[in-house]
Amino acid sequence: MDRKLTVLDLKGRKGARLVMLTAYDAPTARLAVAAGVDVLLVGDSLGMAVLGYDSTVPVTMEDMLHHAKAARRGAPGAFIIADMPFLSFATVERALDNAARFLKEAGADAVKLEGGVEVAPVVEALVRAGIPVMGHLGLTPQTASALGGFKLQARDEDGGRKLLADARALEQAGCWSIVLELVPAPLAKLVTSRAGIPTIGIGAGPDCDGQVLVYHDLVGITAPEFRPKFLKRYAEAGEAMRAAIAQYAAEVRAGRYPDEAHSFGMNADVLRRIESG
Ligand code: KIV
Question: Which residues are designated catalytic?
Answer without folding.
Answer: 181
